[in-house]
Amino acid sequence: MSETLAGIVGKEVGAAIVKKYYHQFQTTSIQTAVNQPTFDFDQEMRNIRKKVDQYLAAGDVETAEKFMQERRDFLATKGYYIRKLNQAYFAFNGKYADLPALRIPSGQS
After folding, report:
1. Cα(72)–Cα(80) distance, integer angstroms
2. What SS3 state is found at 49?
3. DSSP class of 106
4. Nearest 10 degrees: CA dihedral of 108, 100, 57, 52?
5. Which residues pair with 96 in a beta bridge?
6. Mean pLDDT, to the nearest integer, of 54-64?
7. Whether the Cβ atoms of residue 75 and residue 82 lie closer than 8 Å to each other
8. Is the pTM of the predicted complex or chain greater than 0.85?
9. Is the CB of residue 92 less than 8 Å from the CB of residue 49?
């Protein structure tokens, strides 16, 4: 089990226990912190990659480059510091499709 999943489950179980047995200690700030969705880096990278691929398919390299710089800055606000987000980054780190690694269908290479 990964630390991420353990953290998510821990927050949900903790919130359920507080709600059921210690509701007098609940505060809005605790409820808000527990119920906030966590940032999913892999999902964000997939979304960025898809959008960049759309720009590149349309031949709009300049917009793709600008978009990657904007998303790089956004990722930094979430604690993910990437020196340069570009096509080489995606190729090297394998952030493709729905999995963090490139999948090649069987029979193709």
Report:
1. 8
2. helix
3. T
4. -170
5. 99
6. 94
7. yes
8. no
9. no
Q: Which of 20-24, 55-59, 105-109 has the lowest mean pLDDT?
A: 105-109
What would the 3-class secondary structure string for the chain be?
CCHHHHHHHHHHHHHHHHHHHCHHHCCHHHHHHHHCCCCCHHHHHHHHHHHHHHHHHCCCHHHHHHHHHHHHHHHHHCCCCCCCCCHHHHHHHCCECCECCCCCCCCCC
25 Cβ contact list (under 8 Å, min separation 6):
18
Residue in the block written with tokens 């190729």: 91
Helix (H, G, I), strand (E, B) or coil at 81: coil
Which residue's structure tokens are 């031949």? 59
In which residue are the tokens 């269908």 written?
105
